[in-house]
Amino acid sequence: FRQIDGELRQIILPVLEVPFANQDVESAQSLDSLLSAEAAVPFDLTESPLLRVTLFTIGPGDVVLAIVAHHIVVDGWSLAILLQDLADSYGSLMNGGDPVLSALPVQYADFTMWERQLLAEVDNPGLEFWRNRLSRSTTPLDLPADQSRPGTRSHRGHLLAFQIDSALTAQLKAASRATGGSVFVATLTALAAVLHRYTAATTILIGGPVANRPLPELEHVVGFFANTVVYRADVSGEPTLRELMSRVKDDALSVYSHQDTPFDQVVRAVGVERGAARNPLFQVAVAHQRQPDVLFTLPAIDATPIVVGNGTAKFDILIDLQERSAHVDCTIEMSSDLFSPGAAGRLRDHLLHALTAIATAPDTPVSLFPMLSQNERDQAVTGWNPSSAFSVESSVHARFERQAGERRLDVAVIHGATSCTYGDLDHRANQLAEYLRGLGVGPESLVAVCLAPSIDLVVAILGVLKAGGAYLPLDPSYPEDRVAFTLADASVRAVITDAAHSRLTASSDAPHVLLDRDRVVLAALAGQPASAALEPDQLCYVIYTSGSTGRPKGVEITHGNVLRLFDATDDWFSFDHKDVWSLFHSAAFDFSVWELWGSLLYGGRLVIVDRNVARSPREFHALIRKEGVTVLNQTPSAFKHLIEADRLLAATPPASLRYVIFGGEALDLQSLAPWFERHADSHPRLVNMYGITETTVHVTFRPISALDVRSRTGSVIGEPIPDLQVYLLDPHQQPVPIGVPAEIYVGGAGVARNYLNRAELSAQRFLPDPFRPGSGRRLYRSGDLAKRLPNGDIEYLGRIDHQVKIRGFRIELGEIESVLRSHDSILDTVVIAADG
Ligand code: AMP
Ligand code: MG
Question: Do residues 777 and 807 lie in contact, with contact meaning Cβ atoms separated by under 8 Å?
Fold first, then answer.
């Protein structure tokens, strides 16, 4: 094929010499690699021949014949002709005669002229057909890839061979007979069903080669006749497998009657852009041929075909079906750009399960047939969820009191120039508890705490717990209407605030304790250690979360929820009394629960961070150094600013830091690049923890290394805390395979008791655990989307509810920013409707 005067020309030679090489093979192992290497040697399209033959000799009477041809001169059908001609010629030579091949009525060039005429016709009905059926469904399938798609396909691939055995083939034939289908239609149906389960797409386009030899004269011609067609499976409206198969069959029939329109013309007619990243119109293809059981017979020779991968992939996924009389030989060819070899094995299993369901239970809905293998299911349900249990003592304050008893003179809390020892803190909290008990506060009563970050805030929280009550933190920077809503919704027994903030809570009729105004009264109380003895399942705090839908709701967290959080993560962090923590986050955000008790339950030191310091990365950076903070908790957006300050201010990171723990929103690994340019990843250790208020601060754990930042893009959140379970479930609460996006459900000892006073909403979000029926255990349904990486690591993808509704409350720009950041992977459009 040469370029002549700017035009591509086929040059037809009168005679062609085909090189025939001989090569000895040392071992069966080296045969595989020799064959793959031979298949991978490229052709120069401007030089003949575009065919080469090698005879590999393994031993006496044991040879492998390798025929390699470029696709531009042959197709699958041509290879069968070639083999037949070869067998005939071999036979003639063995009989002492000369090979004689019958003359052909037409040549390939005749076919090309004919096709050109056909296409020159205006209003080609074939093009019209294809344009109509494809122009509205050109969104590429979002396949569950292991790697992200490169901008330019490398065409590297891997191959997996398997069989649809004779038993299943017989069942499929019987099932197809009833519907007028075929084994091919059944396989196309199975593939469409699996791809629907992978992607949730309801229109599945699957490409496929067709022989495209519409005239008997063309049946014996060698050349590239094959064309590509596009099957379209309509999986909308929750069809059964039987219904889907009948749709697929009807579609295939209409495709066959328009199979001769050349694919490149179809692509042009439909108007999709060709790109280097993916094949146009379809990403998955199926090839099917009926084949004799014995492909090739030579006199006195036993010949069997060998499947050779040449390390390439023509599409993202190509399934090749060679249908024999009683079984089907299959291969899966997958793009190595996207898939690791394990993905082919999973797809094979899923296809076989779909085929089995089609054969034995065709009335099963496509969304419900059992797709996963038992192994995959076990892995998803228990393998990745090794559930430990931690038995905890009575209450959070009891554990605090044990520390306070041992460390009366150690500093517990520092705020600017003032500090408070464990002994003082314990005593002041006892006094407040005594006062609160006088107001009727006891187990299960809620006490609102509306204070700026301060030592008083810590006293207030401890006082509430010691009285037996549960605290409801109110952020004093919140707008009045939000505070009023929360107070009314929660119907609190008492309010703890100070003179500066008492107007904010004035809407509540409950008795108010003003820590500054009432200081003298409180200080006069005996404050005898007399903490309420509680059970671990009694209420510790209620935090309101706005979530992304509807009005804020209070989440009821128990003492046991909090205590087991620290016990279950202890092996990872080994926090102790030498640790210094910052209270950076608002008490109304549950990250503060981790900061507060992470220091005080271990005898460590808590550094109160003023609001204006929290907003100034430079001042905060200085505070970390001054106080020798060892455990730093940050949202990724806050840490981004701190990285910048760190770069501007210091030659070395704050040396004291042991951990930087991320939470609250998606972590963009790339944002850490400037950090790792300057700091190693062992000290401090960076850890991403995904969490939800409804499951007690944290759910997962994932140390982040410099290597992650270099080699990954997704927001990895790791593995569950050992006493929690994370399930990725489809809308029918079935586990999904590796790589398939699904909703995060969380089970285990961190799951909240309920939403406060919201029985109906609680029943919607806290569901009976489907994997432990009758156990009384519940799963929290998060509304978050994630996928499992092949090593079990979980990657966060965003929120499921694309619609973010925040109504009736003033929201700070920072809040919008963090909502957007945690959504940006799936959100198409953001509408912010502002009034006032
Ligand atoms: P909230 O309960 O209000 O604290 O918000 C919990 C939500 O924050 C989760 O449902 C996630 O959408 C998001 N989130 C929390 N931590 C992470 C994290 N490490 N990575 C990604 N998203 C997170
Ligand atoms: Mg929430």
Answer: no
Q: How far is the CA of 782 from the centre of ligand 2 (A)?
A: 8
Give nearest CA residue, ligand 1 atom 11: 665
> Which residue's alpha carbon is at the smallest distance from atom 19 of ligand 1?
690
Backbone angles phi, psi at 794, to 5 degrees: -100, 140
Q: Is 691 in the pocket of ligand 1 (CB under 6 A)?
A: yes
Distance from the Cα of residue 164 to its chain's centroid = 30
Tell me the torsion sign for CA atoms 406, 569, 455, 533: negative
pLDDT of residue 818: 56
Averaged over 504-513, what is the pLDDT?
96
Residues listed for the chain: 836
| Percent helix, strand and coil across the chain, each to the nearest 5 | 35, 20, 45
Q: Which atom of ligand 1 is nearest to the CA of 662?
A: 19
pLDDT class for 372, splitting at 50, 70, 90? very high
In 3D space, the residue among 483, 442, 484, 486 whose CA is nearest the CA of residue 464 turns out to be: 442
How many A from CA of 690 to the centre of ligand 1?
6
The atom of ligand 1 lying closest to the CA of 690 is: 19
CB under 5 Å of ion ligand 2: residues: 545, 547, 693
Pair 196, 204: CB distance under 8 Å: yes
**Ligand 1 pocket member 664 (CB < 6 A):** yes
Residues 34/62, Cβ–Cβ less than 8 Å: no
Tell me the pLDDT tens digit for each residue of 303-337.
888 878 788 899 999 999 999 999 999 999 999 99
Give the model's pLDDT for residue 826: 36
How confident is the model at residue 293, as a pLDDT? 75
For 204-232, what is each residue's pLDDT tens digit? 999 999 988 888 899 999 999 999 999 99
Beta partners for residue 24, in sequence order: 57
C-alpha distance from residue 692 to each of 147, 643, 778 (Å): 28, 25, 15
Assess whether the C-beta atom of 669 lies below 6 angstroms from ligand 1: no
Backbone angles phi, psi at 209, to 5 degrees: -75, 145
Q: Which residue has a Cα nearest atom 20 of ligand 1?
A: 666
Pocket test for ligand 1, best of 822, 823, 825, 827 (most atoms within 8 A of CB): 822
For the whole prediction, is pTM greater than 0.85?
yes
Q: For the chain, state the CA radius of gyration.
A: 35
d(CA 700, CA 698): 6
Tens digits of residue pLDDT in 703-745: 999 999 998 889 999 999 999 999 999 999 999 999 999 999 9
How much of the chain, in percent, has pLDDT values that exceed 70? 94
Query: For residue 10, how many other CB atoms are within 10 A of its CB?
Result: 12
Cβ atoms of residues 395 and 465 within 8 Å: yes
Taking CA atoms only, the protein residue closest to ligand 1 atom 5 is 692
Note the ligand closest to the C-alpha atom of 700: 1
665 CB less than 6 Å from ligand 1?
Answer: yes
pLDDT digits (tens, 9 = 90+) for 661-689: 999 999 999 999 999 998 888 889 999 99
Q: What is the pLDDT of residue 68?
A: 93
Exposure string for 468-505, b = 16+ CB within 10 A, e = fewer: bbbbbbbbbebeeebbbbbbebbebbbbbbbeebbebb
Residue 667, ligand 1, Cβ within 6 A: yes
Nearest to 618 by CA among 647, 595, 584: 647
Whose CA is closest to 53, among 15, 91, 86, 92? 86
Task: Judge whether 436 and 467 are in contact, CB under 8 Å.
Answer: yes
Which atom of ligand 1 lies closest to the CA of 590?
4
Whose tokens are 């090749």? That residue is 320
